[in-house]
Design a protein that fits this description.
CATH superfamily: Beta-grasp domain
CATH topology: Ubiquitin-like (UB roll)
Largest sheet: 5 strands, mixed
Oligomer: single chain
Number of domains: 1
Shape: globular
CATH class: Alpha Beta
Helix content: 10-25%
Length: 100
């Protein structure tokens, strides 16, 4: 399956990639399988989206698809069909924090 993934600007620069990348993903289309494929194609992203040892999402990274926040979904939960078919992208967003 070809999956479309939109990555944030700072990671695009690190990976020397376009805003949207296409990935070949084998098997079930889950957050884990998409992120594994992304890190395989762009090894310099390892540790930037997920922690090296725990493989948990980094605190200021969020995942969206089909106008849904999927950040707290299980890593092996299937992504929406529109993502699996390539009709909609899987979005990786760098969250902002701050305040006064």
């Amino acid at each position: 399956m070809m999956i479309r993934v939109v990555i944030p600007h700072h990671l695009r620069r690190l990976a020397n990639a376009n805003k949207e990348v296409e990935l070949q993903v084998e098997g079930s289309i889950t957050q884990r399988s998409v992120l594994d494929a992304l890190e395989a194609k762009y090894p310099m992203l390892r540790g930037t989206i997920r922690d090296h040892s725990t493989q948990q999402r980094r605190a200021f990274i969020r995942f969206f698809a089909c106008e849904q926040d999927l950040s707290h979904q299980p890593d092996d939960a299937p992504l929406p069909d529109a993502v699996a078919t390539g009709a909609e992208p899987f979005l990786i967003i760098g969250a902002m924090a701050g305040g006064r």
